[in-house]
Design brief:
It is built from 17 helices and two strands. The chain is mostly helical. A two-stranded antiparallel sheet has the order 1-2. Helix 10 packs antiparallel against helix 15. The protein starts with a strand and ends in a 5-residue tail after the last helix.
Length: 462
């Protein structure tokens, strides 16, 4: 895909000012928007929102990010990467502002949805800006900082969110998010625009996007609200039926439109690419582990949000360290082994966290060690999986294929949180410890399902 810089001045070279703006843009989602995973109990105490609606709101940002990230990547290529990044930052400020003002479900749900749209704009556009304005080693350095912003932000979000919520109150998380977004906006503003020449010929698959979003939102409502509405109620069943019908329409329309569809299903004829996307979706589904562990530590073990966040610091260190180790394992053994070993480590870590029957002191030590294992597994898996998705995509569809892969991450996280929270609420009458234990065991099984997909679809390599 060719890129056309739109500037009348001398050739622009990416600098540290632009890179700082890009990293801060990424952090608005991965560090601040995702930090709500750790502060659910604190938010529940100050909001007039049911637990089911609150957990729906927690998953909503990742859901909307996953729904729109592929379409947003196309819009960035067509209308300008700088323009869409700045649009995403503006949306981040609006969404965070709504969360600061929220006291009931309407503003809170709207704020989380807008944060998801913000992330969908920022992620593909900032990566495209790096590819456009940085060359050689400078590009590799810029990509490394982008990865650190996303992975490091997600590793720090529980600790940072817990620290802010404990010291100042959870609303200050989004005040700081607004300030960071504003600084990023000022740093990126003035960067020469760039677009893709070939993207001008492609039209957005609007009907596909509408049916896709409809299916996912209705499925998320079915999972998140089914317990409160009643699983056999007309409203719950109508959500399920609507999700099924919208999915069937999306698939039928996509197959008919071919490569003009929002998602080109022909990409999944490659077994290795399918393995990367599906296992990525499933492994990200285990992110519900962090939310349930946070709820149990704060409500069952009476830890503060800050103390709970400290339990995940081992995860931050190991996931960043293991990214390079996963790269070396890929080079030596191929993708199959690390893509199977990684989820096994994460599954074992989650299994240990599910031992909610342990004494408080022993359980806290177990949780800290288990998050180290969880991070080891995700870090081991990340690079081989990403490389497999990119390498096995057709040359003329690498951008679209990468967007679908990233969409799998966001949607996996959204659905994982929704299913885990619904399972926890369903089992809560049997005791908080039992509900947390079985919800965590479910997440361990989700990790193992990622192993099964990689074992089945990835080719063996000696």
């Amino acid at each position: 895909m060719s890129t056309v810089p739109l500037t009348d001045t001398r050739a622009f070279v990416g600098n540290d000012r632009l890179l700082a703006g890009i990293v801060l843009s990424v952090l608005t989602f991965w560090l601040f928007a995702q930090s709500v995973i750790n502060v659910v109990p604190a938010m529940k105490n100050s909001l007039d929102i049911s637990l089911e609606t609150l957990t729906l709101a927690v998953s909503l940002s990742a859901l909307f990010s996953g729904c729109f990230v592929v379409a947003s990547g196309g819009l960035a290529d067509k209308f300008g990467r700088v323009r869409l990044t700045l649009t995403g930052l503006a949306l981040s400020i609006i969404g965070s502002g709504l969360l600061v003002l929220a006291h009931g479900p309407a503003l809170f749900l709207a704020g989380r949805a807008i944060q998801g749209l913000s992330a969908a704009c920022i992620m593909p556009a900032t990566l495209a800006l790096i590819k456009t304005w940085y060359e050689g080693k400078a590009r590799q350095r810029a990509i490394s900082f982008w990865v650190i912003g996303s992975w490091g932000g997600s590793g720090l979000c529980s600790f940072v969110g817990g620290a802010i919520a404990t010291g100042l109150g959870w609303r200050w998380i989004f005040v700081f998010s607004m300030l960071v977004a504003l600084v990023a906006f000022l740093l990126i503003r003035g960067t020469p625009e760039s677009r893709s020449a070939s993207a001008q010929q492609h039209k957005l698959d609007v009907s596909g996007l509408i049916s896709f979003v409809t299916a996912l939102v209705m499925l998320n409502l079915f999972i998140s609200k089914g317990h409160g509405w009643g699983w056999s109620s007309g409203l719950t069943l109508s959500m399920l039926a609507g999700a099924v019908l919208a999915t069937l329409w999306f698939i039928r329309s996509g197959l008919r439109k071919g490569d003009a569809a929002l998602i080109d299903f022909a990409l999944f004829k490659n077994r290795a690419y399918s393995a990367a996307v599906l296992s990525n979706f499933m492994l990200n589904g285990s992110i519900g582990t962090m939310m349930i562990t946070s709820i149990w530590l704060q409500q069952g073990q009476h830890l503060s949000p800050l103390q709970t966040g400290m339990m995940t610091l081992g995860y931050l260190v190991t996931v960043l360290v293991m990214i390079r180790v996963g790269e070396k394992l890929l080079q030596r053994y191929g993708a199959r082994i690390p893509m199977m070993v990684g989820p096994v480590l994460s599954a074992f870590g989650t299994l240990l966290i599910s031992c909610t029957f342990l004494e408080k002191e022993l359980y806290i030590i177990t949780v800290f060690f288990s998050f180290v294992l969880f991070g080891l597994g995700l870090g081991c898996y990340a690079t081989p999986s990403t490389d497999t998705a990119v390498v096995n995509a057709p040359e003329n569809k690498v951008g679209v294929a990468s967007g679908i892969y990233k969409m799998g991450s966001s949607l996996g996280g959204a659905m994982g949180i929704a299913v885990t929270a619904s399972l926890y609420a369903l089992l809560l009458p049997y005791g908080m410890a039992n509900a947390a234990q079985y919800a965590l065991l479910f997440n361990s099984a989700v990790c193992l399902s990622a192993v099964a997909v990689s074992w089945w679809l990835l080719p063996k390599r000696s």
